[in-house]
Structure formats: C-alpha cells, structure tokens
Write a structure and sequence with these properties.
about 325 residues; alpha+beta; Glutathione S-transferase Yfyf (Class Pi), Chain A, domain 2; six-stranded mixed beta sheet; binds glutathione
C-alpha cells in the first residue's frame, strides 16, 4: 500500500471492505428479511415425550445439551431445577467454538466433538443450524426435541413420577390462555426482541426492535407493580421465559446488543422480580455470569470484532 495514501481514502477503503465483510458474516450469523430485520430459523426436531410415544418418560434415559450462556437452553435448566429433575435428566455442556461461532461438545463423545456432529448422527444430511438446547434420548441415540418452548412443557408435565417437586405445575390448565398471551408478547418483544436489536442490519430495523422492547419492558414493569409474577402470585413458564432474558440484560444485551435505553436494575419492579426468581432454590446455580459475558462477547465476532471482553458488570443488586 502506498505510504502517502491520504487518510480519508484508507478510511473509505476500510469502511467499504469492513461493511461488505460485516454483511456477509451477519447473513451467516443472523438470517434477515430484505429490510434488515432478524429472522430466527424454526427448530427442526419437535417430538414429544409421553406414555404413547416412542419416547416414554423414564429416569436416566434423557439428557439435555446446553450452553450456559444461552437463554433458550437456560429455560430448560430452570425447569429441571424447579421440578427437581437433577437426578432424572442429565446435562451435557457445550462451549462456543472460537473459530466459527458454532457449539462444541465440552466432552467429545462417539458422535464427534461438534454439536453439529450430534445433529448429523441423528439425521445424517441435516443442514439446519445446530442449536442448544437439545433434548437427547440416550436409548435410541437421537434428538427428541430442540425447541426450548416445547422442552420446558415436557419437563413440567411428563416426569412427575420421578420429580422431587411433582406438585409444582408451571403451566396450569386454568392459566394457559393468559400464560400463552404473555409468552407471545414476551417472545416477540423481549426474548427474541433483544436479538432483533442486536442482529438488526439497518437503522430502521433496530429502531423498531428497540422501541418494541422497551415498550414491553415498561408494560411488564407496570404489571409487576401489583403482581408478584406475570400470572398473579404463581410462578409459571412465562416467568421462566422472561427471567432468562432479564438476567442477561445488564450483562450483555444492554451494551453488546445496543439495548441501551435502560438496565433492568433501573426498573424497581422488574429488578425485584428478577431477584425473587434468582433466589428460588437451585436457580442461582444455573446463572453463570462470567460465562454469559465471556461467551457473548467472544463468539459473536461481527458484533465485537476487537474481541474485548468488558469489565465485570455490577450484579450486586440481585442480592439486595
Ligand atoms: N428455537 C430455539 C433457539 C435456540 C437458539 O437459537 N440457540 C442458540 C444459542 S443462544 C444457538 O444454539 N445458536 C447456534 C446457531 O444458531 O448456529 C429454542 O428456543 O430452543
């Protein structure tokens, strides 16, 4: 490169090269609509566990593959802990691959060392994304389900004869309509909403996502001013689903995903709500703050190309 190239040309060249590469990498990381909005792919494995299916509930037969930083996988760990299924359903951990952002098995097994190897052992020509959580059947050596919203319903309902808390029903029939309504709005605006902010590829897509996110946080804040949980005074799957995003919010979404208007600790009721769930038995053990921060900042390369991990975020408000 000529030594006397004017600085502005270098900047122009850098900007053009980086933007082109960024768009290519973002297309791989985050499928988008033509107007730059993030589109989350559908989960491919949707089998159920019940007495009439190929997959009856049994102690010691099923395993969850989870990454500790992943909010969708975290849902399954929460329900496993709340129901007392630790000795019934085992857990295998995945770690983000430093090379391509996929997942590696923390303990490589006979299927290989990548999560994709596990998916391909279940379906040899599998070409979708290899996501966590995975509900795996050790007996037939296959994937039962890889959709967290369904796995948590299965864990809530199907393993009661083995659970230490069988009486806890996180999806009671009388509340289903209200719980499903919360699930819909929370999924769109908050759970997936933070990703729609972070993975937006145009200013307009980001502006829309961020305003929907904070509108829904404000609505939830008001609701939680006179309700302990989303559905009155009972903890449900809707709370499980909201909690896993809120607990990551100040740590990563606020800065990395540009969800920067406010933090959860700035909301009186939302922060009280997160605190109270965090202190339920078995929950704090599922929240690994340093792994959450490290994984997000180090594996989403197009969002943090310098690979600098921010200093610890103060989460002491949880113990107030
Ligand atoms: N619909 C899935 C989404 C799971 C998901 O997106 N997991 C992320 C980690 S937070 C993942 O594994 N991503 C890897 C990829 O997309 O290649 C669920 O809720 O279970």
């Amino acid at each position: 490169m000529p030594r006397n190239l004017p600085a502005s040309s270098i900047i122009q060249l850098g900007r053009f090269t980086w933007t082109t590469l960024w768009q290519m990498m973002m297309a791989q990381l985050a499928p988008r609509s033509t107007d730059g909005k993030y589109l989350r792919p559908e989960s491919a494995f949707r089998q159920v566990i019940n007495a009439d299916s190929r997959y009856p509930a049994q102690a010691g037969r099923y395993r969850l593959f989870v990454g500790m930083s992943c909010p969708w996988a975290h849902r399954t760990l929460l329900v496993r802990a709340l129901k007392g299924l630790e000795s019934v359903i085992s857990v295998s951990f995945t770690l983000p691959s430093p090379e391509n952002g996929g997942w590696l098995l923390a303990t490589p097994d006979r299927h290989g060392h990548r999560l994709m190897d596990l998916y391909r052992s279940a379906v040899p020509n599998y070409s979708g994304r290899a996501t966590v959580p995975v509900l795996w059947d050790d007996e037939t050596q296959t994937i039962v389900n890889n959709e967290s919203a369904e796995i948590i319903k299965l864990l809530n309902a199907e393993f009661n004869s083995f659970a230490t808390n069988p009486e806890l029903d996180l999806y009671p029939i009388v509340g289903r309509e209200a719980i499903d309504r919360w699930n819909d709005v929370i999924y769109h605006s908050i759970n997936n909403g933070v990703y729609r902010c972070g993975f937006a590829q145009t200013q307009t897509a980001y502006d829309q996502a961020v305003s929907e996110l904070f509108d829904q946080l404000d609505t939830s804040e008001i609701h939680l001013g006179c309700n302990e949980f989303l559905w009155g005074d009972r903890l449900t799957l809707a709370d499980v689903r909201l909690f896993t995003t809120l607990i990551r919010f100040d740590l990563v979404y606020h800065s990395l995903f540009k969800c920067s208007r406010r933090r959860i600790r700035d909301y009186a009721n939302l922060s009280r709500y997160v605190q109270s769930i965090y202190h339920l038995p078995g929950i704090a053990e599922t929240c690994d703050f340093s792994t959450i921060q490290h994984d997000y900042f180090s594996s989403l390369f197009p969002l943090n190309p310098g690979n600098i991990i921010p200093t610890d975020v103060d989460m002491s408000w949880l113990s107030r």
